[in-house]
Design brief:
two-stranded antiparallel sheet, 12 helices
């Protein structure tokens, strides 16, 4: 079999990566470069999921999400007595909760690793910054999916009260999953910026709030700027999907946000590791 050199960091005595050395990596099927990268990502994903659900933070965040959402949906809007069998208002509150839920989840992903020094330990292993970032981001997306699963009783109850159109419901949940994944990617990038979890939370919350509020600013903008600002508004793309139509432009938008944010997180992590 052909052997291809793969670079992994050699560490100094102080635990930081000093320079790169090469180690052979066998190419061929699952033992090739992509197979090794996938195994690394899955290993990090499993580690993070165990850390999430083995820590009170996950239960606290999910429990708080359900309580706050219930207060808004049943208290402020009272969708059960509103006379309209629609998920539009519950989806609006879920998206609003994600603006603060995801920064709370992602603030410790990389900041905690850097504060405790365990990131230097990861740097001694044959794993790239990109694999670390993707594995940790996927763990946050799993938590987003768990949060969405906890909300499924809402459309079920609404469907028992009248005729619920399940097309927009499916599209709305897809939009929330993609938007939540984008928020998680932004939070992962801000977590790579600092060792302080509170700072990471504030940066992520601000970065998530701006595109979420961009739609509200449209009436105040000059007409020439409306299309550009509308396109970067999360609300605009979520509304497209929540109509029950799979709009490829919205999927590409969320995918682009995720890709850019994760690439930024990996670059920041590599810069810190080699500093």
């Amino acid at each position: 079999m052909e052997h291809v050199p793969r670079q992994i960091p050699r560490t100094r005595r102080d635990g930081r990566a000093a320079r790169w050395r090469t180690t052979p990596l066998t190419v061929g099927g699952a033992t090739g470069h992509h197979g090794a990268a996938l195994r690394n990502v899955v290993a990090i994903l499993r580690r993070e999921i165990k850390g999430f659900f083995g820590h009170p933070l996950a239960a606290l965040v999910l429990g708080l999400f359900v309580i706050v959402l219930s207060v808004f949906v049943l208290g402020f809007d009272d969708v059960l007595l509103g006379g309209s069998v629609s998920m539009r208002r519950p989806f609006r509150w879920m998206a609003a909760c994600f603006v603060f839920l995801l920064p709370a989840v992602t603030m410790r992903l990389l900041a905690e690793e850097q504060r405790t020094g365990s990131m230097h330990l990861l740097g001694t292993l044959p794993v790239t910054p990109g694999e670390i970032v993707v594995g940790k981001w996927l763990a946050a997306v799993v938590l987003v999916a768990c949060a969405l699963v906890l909300t499924l009783p809402i459309p079920v109850v609404l469907a028992s009260l009248g005729e619920l159109d399940w097309g927009p419901v499916a599209g709305g949940y897809l939009g929330l999953l993609l938007g939540g994944a984008a928020f998680a990617a932004i939070g992962t990038a801000t977590s790579a910026l600092t060792e302080n979890q509170i700072v990471a939370f504030l940066l992520a919350a601000t970065a998530c709030l701006l595109p979420a509020l961009a739609g509200a600013a449209l009436p105040l903008l000059p007409t020439a700027l409306v299309p550009a600002v509308e396109y970067i508004s999360f609300e605009y793309h979520f509304a497209n999907l929540a109509r029950g139509v799979l709009d490829s432009r919205s999927v590409v938008f969320f995918g682009s946000v995720i890709a850019v944010a994760l690439r930024m997180a990996a670059a920041l992590l590599e810069h810190r590791r080699l500093a």
